[in-house]
Fold:
Amino acid sequence: MLNYIIRRAIYIIPLLIGITLITFFIMQLTPGKPTEIMTEMQLKVSPEAKQRLIKLYGLDKPLHIQYLNWLKRMIKFDFGNSFKDDRPVIKKILERLPATLLLNFLSLLLIFCFALPIGIYSAIHKDKLFDKTMTVFVFLGYSIPKFWLALILMIVFGIFLGWLPISGLRSINYDELSFCGKIFDILKHLILPVLISGFGGLAGLSRYTRNSMLEVINSDYIKFARAKGLTETKIIYRHALKNALIPVVTILGLSLPELIGGSFIFETIFAYPGMGRLGYDAVMSRDYPMVMAVGSIAAFLTLLGNLLADIAYAYVDPRIRIKQ
Amino acid sequence: MSLIFISLLILIAVFAPLIVKYDPLEQNLTDRLLPPSKKYIFGTDDLGRDVFSRVVYGTKISLSVGIIAVGISTVIGIMLGLAAGFFGKTIDTVIMRFVDICLCFPTFFLLLMVIAFLEPNIYNVMIVIGITSWPSITRLIRGEVLSIRERDFILAAKINGISTLRILFVHILPNTIGPILVNATLGIGGAILTESALSFLGLGVQPPIPSWGNILTIGKDYIHLAWWLSLFPGLAIFFTVLFFNLLGEGLRDIFDPKY
Structure:
């Protein structure tokens, strides 16, 4: 097992290098040098001063040297300073990261808690009313623009009914609340973002669980269990479920890029103070160091998620780790 | 059913000027933010423009972005997938590692980055959606090619001295057409969703050109005052994507009896 984990971990190194290469390449696509953006607001900057800046940032060196220098700094988590307020990028991201992780973690939890029971129940009661309703629901889930759903829910629950706050993570009077009040306040703010962010994954995963379960239910060893006269509950929960959940683990890992990608939209809509919002603001104000850092970290988190999924997969399915 | 709806959409896109009463760009400041009525069936926006006209004209933008973006990604996907699946070895490894890397990036942020650095406009949106969504198609086609290339008729073709290019495009490619069509149809729905999300965030189709996404941006700004600005364009996106997905599923039923 340890052997397998180490092999998988080594495998992500070339992927990481590839990710940094692409990020660096996109940075090169930018029209104009970063120094020009820094100086464009100040007309009095002399050409000599510009040259000094270019030298300072190493922009006069050949591309591959620039890349290696950038990589060196990145390994030390030194992403430079934000153009916006000159604070270290990594510091700004670390301030926001917990909120994004919380949002994504809760969304995953939501997906897990609902998608699995729905998928299993649909498979056991295939073609019954519940299954058919869920099929429709899944289709709607795939087709509905999530940001629009967010808008509509904001209008219904935030404005018409006035039940839920529609932006941010805390109310204005947050500091005056008691401890329980604070937690309740944050939870209230989280309901809509978590619901929206988990919605797509919920539809996908429940469908996937259903199909995987159906495949298992129709296999020979389940038929044998039936022939042996085991009760239906025992067949489903003792024998079928474990095997049906194996592929689901991978899908859960693969849904991470979608979740993290989604946080860029949802955090912006809900004015949620997370990394996605930070990334979006950076893109809009062309704060390059910040954009690069957010991009790399998001990709890194995705890789990490995939690695965990792989490990979980090997853990639940011995065939995987023995085969390789 | 879905085919009828999509044909109808294409007709709407083509004959948009004949359907609407008002110019989608015409501002009428005395009629600002009016709720739906007989005069303006979808209401008006913050500049007094008719929302119905804007949604109808938006059809054309969304459909063309969806179709062209998927065209681009399908062509790239076919080329790389054929190469990876048929030649194998180093070519396969290089292409598939690259695919792995691309699949790690949260696509949406990649889109944001590239579009923000280029100029946000409709052409860049098409190109960027196209070049960021090819990896999954490459994977799909590679898988198909891997199974087809072992079949006897390919061996027969090779023995007959048919050139590699001809084998690839005349003998292998037509056999993968089913999954490609299914994927492309589902992809159009996805591309329309992405375009509307980008336009919604101000990085897609730029105002005053109407797109479903950028009407929703105004909807968000006036969320307290004008619900109709949020409702109708969203419904348009929803139904369009829904019917493309239904069509895709229908095609899958035809081409892949397993489902």
In short: The two ends of chain A are 11 Å apart (CA to CA).
